[in-house]
Every structure is written in C-alpha cells, then in structure tokens.
Amino acid sequence: MAATTGLSTALLTDHYELTMLSAALADGTAQRRCAFEVFARRLPDGRRYGVVGGTRRVVAAIADFRFGPAEVEHLRATGVVDEDTLRWLADYRFGGDVDGYPEGELYFPGSPVLTVTGTFADAVVLETLVLSILNHDSAVLSAAARMASAANGRPIIEMGSRRTHEAAAVASARAAHIAGFDTTSNLEAGRSWGIPTAGTCAHAFTLLHDSEKEAFEAQVAALGVGTTLLVDTYDITRGIETAVSVAGPRLGAIRIDSGDVGVLARQAREQLDALGATGTRIVVSGDLDEYAIAALRAEPVDAYGVGTSVVTGSGSPTAGMVYKLVEVDGRPVAKRSSHKESRGGRKLALRRHKPTGTALEEVVYLASGPAPELGEHDRLLQVPLLRGGDPVDDLPTLGDSRARVRQGLVSLPWEGLKLSAGEPAIPTVHPAQEQA
Amino acid sequence: MAATTGLSTALLTDHYELTMLSAALADGTAQRRCAFEVFARRLPDGRRYGVVGGTRRVVAAIADFRFGPAEVEHLRATGVVDEDTLRWLADYRFGGDVDGYPEGELYFPGSPVLTVTGTFADAVVLETLVLSILNHDSAVLSAAARMASAANGRPIIEMGSRRTHEAAAVASARAAHIAGFDTTSNLEAGRSWGIPTAGTCAHAFTLLHDSEKEAFEAQVAALGVGTTLLVDTYDITRGIETAVSVAGPRLGAIRIDSGDVGVLARQAREQLDALGATGTRIVVSGDLDEYAIAALRAEPVDAYGVGTSVVTGSGSPTAGMVYKLVEVDGRPVAKRSSHKESRGGRKLALRRHKPTGTALEEVVYLASGPAPELGEHDRLLQVPLLRGGDPVDDLPTLGDSRARVRQGLVSLPWEGLKLSAGEPAIPTVHPAQEQA
C-alpha cells in the first residue's frame, strides 16, 4: 500500500504561503510557536454528519513536502521569494506535531479535525496541501457514507473515475472504499491502496460484435460464466434471454445501466427466475445517488454501481474546511471582523455517548483549560499523527478506517441517518471556559 | 511548459477496459477499426455554452499511456487479465488518430469534441483517462469562462487550490487561465504550465504579529509598498487607516475577504481617496462566483479573487461527457435500448455564423456522407491532434487557447452570455443524411 510517491509535493501550495514565510523570516516572527486548526464552520447542504477523509494521505504528503533543486530553481526564476527564504526552504523538513481525528471518524461543525503545531514557518507552508487533501477526500467520503448507509448492506461498486480529475479519481476510490464501498473500477486505486477492483464490459463491447449473442459468447469465453453481462444495449428482455442461453443458468450477474432500473430489476428478476437463473445477481448502475439507492431498497437489486455522484460529493464537491491560526506563543488568536469569526486557542474534542452507545454531543474545549470530565461512554477524538515531523508508528489502516465509519454510523441518533436535509445529528458544544 | 510527467498513466483506467480488451483479443474483434466519439448529451444546469478544456493534457496523457514492468506486474498479481493480454499491454503504444475541438473552443450538446480512431484494442483502453481529463477540465473551464465574462475585463485571480484535490488544483488553475483568469495562487501551475502566480498574505500573518501595524510593516518591508494588504482581520476602517499610514499613499492594493464586499468596497474607495491613496487598488475575495462578480460590476472593485466556485465548476463539477463507440469497420453503431441513444457513425462538425461573426448553429454531420456547404463565415471545428499515435506538430499553446475562448465568447448571440439558466446559445443540428 504505497502511501507516498517520492515526488515533491512542495509546490502544491499557494504563492502567499511563501511570501508570508519570507516576511516572517525577515522580522523574526517565523519562529513563534503556533497552532493551526482545521475545521469546517458548517456541514454542506443540510447534511447531518461529515466523515473525515484524507488523514493518512496528509501524513504522506507532509513527508514528501521538500523543496528539491527543481522546486527551488523554479521559485528563484520566478522571483516568488528572496535568497534567504530559498535557503530556508531548501533545508525545510516539517519538524512539528500533527494531531487529528483518525480517518473515518465523524465530524460536525467546529470539530478540530486536524491540528498542526510548530513554528509559524513550519506550519504555515502546509496550509494549502493539507486543505486540498482533507477537503476533497472528506467531501467524497461523506457522500459515500450516505450511499453505503442507504445501500443497507448491499454491495456498492465505485465507478466514477471518468467523471473527475484522473488523480482525484484514485483518491475518490480510496475514500469510497473507506466509506463502505466494496470495490472500485480504478486500477491505480488497486495498485496504490490495495483496494479490490472490478469490472467486466461496457456497451462498446456489445456494439463491437456483429450481434449481442457473439459479444456474450466472447465475454463468457474470456471471463467465465461467473461474469456480469450488460443486457441493455438493445432490448433488455431479449438481452437477458440471450445472456442465459449463452452462459446458462449459472450466469454470475446481469447489469442494467439505463431506464427505470427499479421496474426493470423486478422484471429481470422474474425473467431470470423463470429461466432457472435463480442465483444470477442483478447489478444496477446509471446516475445513482444516495436517494436513488434508498428508493431501490425494496427492489430485487443485488449490487449498485455508482459513478458521478460519489466522486463529486453528491452536490457538495468540497468539504469547506479551513486552516486557521488559533494560537501564537500560547496566546489565543482569532479574526474578529465579521460573521466568520473563529474561536481562538488550540482545542481538543470529545464525543459524549449514552450508555447505549448513541452519540449525544461533540464537546470542543480549550487544550489550555480544565478538561471536561470524560465519562465511561465518552471518547477523546484527536489522536497523534506526527511527532517531531515523523509519522507515528500505528497509523490506522484502511481496514481500521472502514470499521470506524461503520461504528460511527451505528452511533448516530436515528435522525442522523436520514437522507433529507436537516441539522447536524448532534450539537457541538463549547464549555463555558472558552468564553473567558 | 512541461506537458508530461514521464510517469505511466496506464492504470488511471477502469478495470473493465482491460477485461473487454482481453475478451476482444481472444476472439479477434480487437483488430476491428473503430471510432469512439466524446460528446456531452447536454450542458450542465441551464448553461448556455460549454468550453472544451483538457485537450492538450489528453494528448500528453496518451503519450504516457504505457504499461511498464510495474503496471504489468500489478495486473498479473491481481489477475485482472491473462498472460496473452499482459504481453499485448507491455507492447502497447497508441497507434491511432485523434481529432478534436481545440482547447478553448465552445461546445454544445452533441458536439463531437474528440474522436479517437484506431483498432478497438488501441482505442478502448483510453476511455477512462480521456474522459477524466476532459470532464474535469471542461467543467472548470466552462465555469471560469462565465466568471471571466462577468468580470468584464477586470482581473481575476484563481485561488481555489485548497478546495479541490491537490492535483486537480493544478489542472483547475490551468483551465481558469485559459478561460481568462490572469493569475493563480498555485505554484505548481506556475511551474508546469508557465502561468503567472500571485499572492501576498493571509489573516494568519496579521494574527501572528502583536498588532496589525507590525504585520503590515513586516509585509511592506519584505514585499514593498506595491503589495496587497489584507485589511479585514479586525476592523476594516482601522485596517485601511493603518495600511496607508504604514505603506503610504502609493500602497499597491488592499484586499477585503469577508462581509458585504460591495458596500465595503465603496466605503474603502472613499476612505482610500480621502487618504490620498487614489491609486491603491481594491481586491475582493470570499465565496465569489459568477453571480457575485456580476453583481459587483458597478462597485469600485479592481480585481476579484475566486476560489471554491471555480475549482468546483460552480455547481457543475463534471462536464458529463461520454466516450461512445460510433463506428466499427465502417458500420455505424449505437445503443438503442433507452432515451440515452447515441447517433451512430463518425461525425464532423462545423459552426455557422452570420456575416457579423455571430454564431448561428452547430452542424454535426456524418464523416461518411456528403459534407454540408461551408459558407464564407463558417468554420470546421475538429482539428488533428494525434496521427499514428504521434502528437501533431502545431498543438495550440495556452495563449492560443485563451484567444480562442475570447473569440468564442464574442461570437455568441447576446442571450448566450446571460448567466441565468436557459437553452444552449445556438442549436445543434443534424443534417437529414444522418437519419438515413
């Protein structure tokens, strides 16, 4: 499970991070001890929960955040910063600490999902890259979790690579897998992250042949009777008839990619059963999202293929997280000019639960103040991710993160799993200490 | 302007492309001559035009589409395809032709924006990668063109990297630049594509210091009086006062990132003028999209910073283009089971214009049939991109593509530039020959 590419990530950065660095190096403030906090002011579009995605990719990207000769030369040639700053960048290696919510953890408005502590210089340059990863991966993971929840245990295949940037496709497949999707179409996600890949044939394969029958024969010859035959190129009823006549009643599955898939699935099930193909599964795809998946619950569907909606965050393609300076040399700081105020001070969080395990509230409190009481059913939410610039030893695996999503969804109050727009499933509370 | 990374793009592909290949190699159909066509069935969300983005990245990605030992070994280890197919993939180099709309060209429903011709084997494996690039880049470019059009000549800075996948951020900066944005915050876009980068300071820089005055002094010392001071960390009126007292009346610009930026810009202009800073420009940012930009036309704003909305395609994060097999050994083919029918046959396109240069209609016609008359003011839309697998010599530069977007927008009927939802600005017509 390759986590880093060995390629520098240092220029995946906003110009102003380096001009701030340059000015701060010049006046000595670059060495002040700072805490930057990543959080979302709100959940997107009436969502009731978010799921943190990308944490492990952030850890890898920080390790690759080095300014090699090529990066320094580009910055010199374009005059982005001065020679003193270039020398500093050439030696840069993040030396601070990172704590955060483990990947797959639920989050709510104000949850401190990641905290970067170190000198201003160390921490400021990571802003853009950290946010890119968390905002993208959390948007996809949050949408995917709603789909997995709507699928209610039926398998889901992620097949949206073609609808998003080619590298974002790999990260999307990974996020969807953490959310509970079973397989992905994306081969690079298989190589980079060990995610099982799947796929058989598109309409093009049928059209390539002189008849649907010849196409099915070729596919079964190459991939076996356990394959999935796509039956909606011409006429679905005839397609199913041909599929079973070619593959026999032990055909693995059929796929329907268009039309009113609920109605078609019912008709297909009857037809397959009548043909003796009682074990042949029905896979549906074609513009499915969490609402369509939920609407198909009562239909004889065995698996869903989901594309566009999952890789675009189902209407919310970015999680809207921000990276805010909250503490300088132990002093809380915050912007104050508008409704966009942040709460100053480095924060920690715990989640309170009922004895039954149902989540009650997200408690976000100042690290410098008295810690709220941690009840028997409560849980601290941040864990160490890097110490002195080095990743900690026991980062969660993808499997751990998958399990965490499942546990998180189980812990939500029942309203929290509703797909309709509403308030966050649990409130975020800030103990009185923070108002001081 | 590095176009390729030299890294293999071959696994940025859906599993089923390779299983189809495997089955087609086994039954001999892999060598049939095919044409695949990329088009959008519709424009997103009431949009009146689309702009093709990513063409040049597609050309580069095809050149890097090679299965090296690492890719072959992954496919062997995971059993995706058989040994015969692995041998074929190890020797794969695209040997066909690609024609398409040049980057920056307008497109409409059914426009054949890219056509890949070659053997089935040659062309089928490129589907996912080609669509990923075109769908992402066209979504961003199309949204960005609406913003550039709304800005009506005022400069726009792209600063959305933190809201999208870290690699998508680079492609987004590039697409926005083609659309007419002047600069980007993204340093890698500067390195990879030669796009001018810009940026000065964030709120964090002010908060790092003991006072706003000290922060401004440090910034001016490092970046000169021509810099842009961010004045809304605490109180904007006092921020502007401090900014001019520190930098003098020749301060380059102030930036306002929150609040009702229209009202604030007017107040700021009056205050700056009263302080003698009549040449100090006003940059506004903070959740701007094309509608907000248009609403600010009458305000004294000198430049816009745009983030989230541009990198997420302003509500339409994917262009929804498809890659359809339309011709096999000279025979038109098309799916027929549902409303999603395609029109069979390899197609060409021309755009008709009035003598004034205003576009009239998009004519999409069969390459095999009689060509429609090409009037004096009409224009053929597809150009060669690859021949025998090699990129053609005179691919458009980014500057060419920027000019093409400008010309395209000028050619639209006036309704076409309206931001409100509506029909495509010009109709797509299919001459009668095609019904045959």
UniProtKB/TrEMBL annotation, chains A, B:
Keywords: Glycosyltransferase, Ligase, Phosphoprotein, Pyridine nucleotide biosynthesis, Transferase. Pathway: Cofactor biosynthesis; NAD(+) biosynthesis; nicotinate D-ribonucleotide from nicotinate: step 1/1. It comes from the Bacteria. The keyword Secreted does not apply. InterPro entries: Aldolase_TIM, NAPRTase_N, Nic_PRibTrfase-Fam, Nic_PRibTrfase_pncB, Nicotinate_pribotase-like_C. It catalyses: 5-phospho-alpha-D-ribose 1-diphosphate + nicotinate + ATP + H2O = nicotinate beta-D-ribonucleotide + ADP + phosphate + diphosphate. One of its GO terms (molecular function) is nicotinate phosphoribosyltransferase activity. Transiently phosphorylated on a His residue during the reaction cycle. Phosphorylation strongly increases the affinity for substrates and increases the rate of nicotinate D-ribonucleotide production. Dephosphorylation regenerates the low-affinity form of the enzyme, leading to product release. It is an enzyme of class 6 (ligase). The keyword Ligase applies. One of its GO terms (cellular component) is cytosol. Coiled coil: none annotated. Catalyzes the first step in the biosynthesis of NAD from nicotinic acid, the ATP-dependent synthesis of beta-nicotinate D-ribonucleotide from nicotinate and 5-phospho-D-ribose 1-phosphate. Belongs to the NAPRTase family. This is Nicotinate phosphoribosyltransferase.
